[in-house]
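Dear H.,

Thanks for agreeing to be a second pair of eyes. The structure we're designing against is below in token form, covering all 341 positions.
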């Protein structure tokens, strides 16, 4: 995300991108994104007035640091802070570059419709800027109330918005989707007819992660066998670092679950979030040996996190995942045909 000197709104949002990419504290990110929204909401006359008067800090939501960025961007230069962030940004997952260059999209992302931090259009505009042909919007299902999961009616409203945005962003394509909770009995937390309408369904376990191995195995097998499920999300549920602390892997018979994924054509997600990096390498190699499909997904909850795919690509290459079995390396037509086939 480099190039000519950006305008103030673009500069503030790019700063947010780099901070999110490096997992900065949320309040720091929000300060720059909030300032970007404030400036973006000004009329041309209001913006010109503040530019002449250097009075940006009179606006609620703009402080000394964000005002400095705005001033420098208005002067036609790359703001110093943005230049420093660009220079400090380290490549992500360089050993996985061979796979990263083949990826055409991301099949697991969240917006502010559930527990993401940014509007759909901002998430998807960044995905397009990163070179994706398509990106699935997979906000949570209703049972995950802490994440403001989508009821059927809210999901249907979202589908209308996605249709409008697809007209604006073409040829880039937002894929309709959901991260649906796998319930205790293996059923899915959304109406079956509605799931069938979506482009991509990621099914994940978010509750009772310490259940008995037999119970968890049956639960996951029932889910991946469901014809509406395309991807098994972060299968072990582990957390290995981060602000939420750590969490051990769920216990299940991986041979049985991965064999079910193979038999029913459900891809195993290689989750790129640094606190997840799920599945662990030993299970990733087992899924390769079983003959599973895979999907390398960021599980992004903010635009800067969309650049995390390199983490998953590095692990995929290290564990021998064949690129042709990674479904988001496929052209959109092939992916959608596989989904409905």
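And this is the sequence the design step returned. I haven't edited it by hand at all.
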């Amino acid at each position: 995300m480099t190039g000519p000197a950006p305008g103030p709104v673009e500069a503030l949002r790019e700063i947010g991108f780099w901070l999110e990419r490096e997992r900065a504290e949320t309040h720091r990110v929000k300060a720059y994104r909030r300032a970007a929204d404030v400036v973006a909401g000004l009329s041309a006359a209001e913006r010109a007035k503040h530019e002449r008067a250097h009075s940006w800090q009179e606006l609620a939501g703009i402080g000394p640091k964000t005002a400095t960025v705005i001033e420098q961007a208005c002067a036609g230069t790359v703001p110093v802070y943005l230049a420093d962030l660009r220079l400090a940004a380290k490549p992500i997952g360089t050993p996985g570059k061979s796979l990263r260059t083949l990826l055409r999209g991301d099949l697991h992302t969240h917006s502010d419709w559930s527990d993401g931090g940014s509007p759909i259009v901002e998430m998807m505009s960044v995905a397009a800027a990163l070179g994706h042909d398509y990106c699935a919007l997979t906000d949570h299902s209703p049972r995950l109330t802490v994440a403001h999961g989508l009821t059927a009616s809210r999901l249907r409203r979202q589908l209308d918005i996605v249709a409008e945005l697809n007209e604006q962003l073409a040829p880039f394509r937002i894929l309709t989707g959901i991260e649906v909770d796998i319930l205790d009995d293996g059923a899915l937390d959304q109406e079956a007819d509605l799931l069938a309408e979506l482009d991509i369904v990621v099914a994940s376990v978010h509750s009772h992660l310490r259940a008995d191995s037999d119970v968890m195995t049956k639960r996951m097998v029932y889910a991946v066998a469901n014809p509406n499920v395309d991807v098994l999300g972060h299968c072990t549920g582990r957390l290995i670092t981060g602000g939420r602390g750590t969490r051990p892997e769920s216990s299940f018979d991986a041979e049985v679950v991965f064999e079910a994924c193979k038999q029913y054509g459900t891809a195993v997600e290689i989750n790129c979030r640094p606190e997840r990096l799920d599945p662990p390498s030993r299970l990733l190699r087992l899924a390769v040996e079983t003959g599973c499909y895979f999907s390398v997904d960021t599980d992004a909850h903010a635009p800067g996190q969309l650049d995390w795919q390199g983490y998953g690509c590095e692990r995929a290459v290290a564990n021998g995942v064949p690129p042709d079995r990674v479904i988001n390396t496929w052209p959109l037509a092939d992916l959608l045909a596989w989904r409905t086939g």
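Two observations from my side: The two ends are 37 Å apart (CA to CA). Strands lie at 105-106, 134-137, 173-181, 200-204, 231-232, 267-271, 294-297.

Warmly,
E.
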